[in-house]
């Protein structure tokens, strides 16, 4: 295999996420749900995580620095639920999600909500979801351990970005040297 091709595949491998996680309500080969709500399981990057489902919808949420982020799917088909009206009420604090159509992520950014959810403990969540004529309340539990920090995943992202940029720079240097060698061999 040519060195350039090897370098390309190596850069793809290193730039890809180190851990892949299933979307909400992972499905088996026959479409069955493989999980129930795995309340309190931290994601592989250390952020507090909550999962939940109802008859209509399922979600995965992460507590991050400054936001509670959530992705939501249709329970039966695992199709993304885009542009729904999603509200949360926790300990008397209400917040409405902002939806990003590019990423498919719902964000709750109320400073009071994030502060209340950042306290170690089990936090029962209930999302009021309205999509067209469908309405449902989707429950789940967010468990924040005393040693878990909402911003835990941030360093991994920066590390991956740094590795990707380093590999891109190495590829540019390699291509320039190869081009010079070819030019010198032709002359």
Q: What is the arithmetic mean of pLDDT?
A: 79
H and E string: HEEEEEEEHEEH
- Give the C-level CATH assignment of the domain at 39-146: Mainly Beta
**Outline, from the CA principal axes?**
elongated
Broad structural category:
alpha+beta
Query: How many whole angstroms does the radius of gyration measure?
Result: 22 Å
Notable characteristics:
187 residues; alpha+beta; Immunoglobulin-like; 5-stranded antiparallel β-sheet; 28% helix
How would you describe this structure to a colleague?
- With 187 residues, this protein is an alpha+beta fold.
- The protein has a domain of 108 residues: Immunoglobulin-like, CATH 2.60.40.
- The chain is 28% helix and 32% strand.
- It is built from 3 helices and 9 strands.
- A 5-stranded antiparallel beta sheet has the order 1-2-3-7-6, covered by helices on one side. A 4-stranded antiparallel beta sheet has the order 5-4-8-9, covered by helices on one side.
Give the gist of this structure.
The chain is α+β, with helices and mostly antiparallel strands.
Q: How does the SSE layout of this entry go?
A:
Elements: H1 3-15, E1 49-53, E2 57-64, E3 67-74, E4 85-90, E5 93-96, E6 98-100, E7 105-108, H2 111-117, E8 121-131, E9 134-144, H3 154-186
Antiparallel strand pairs: 1-2, 2-3, 3-7, 4-5, 4-8, 6-7, 8-9
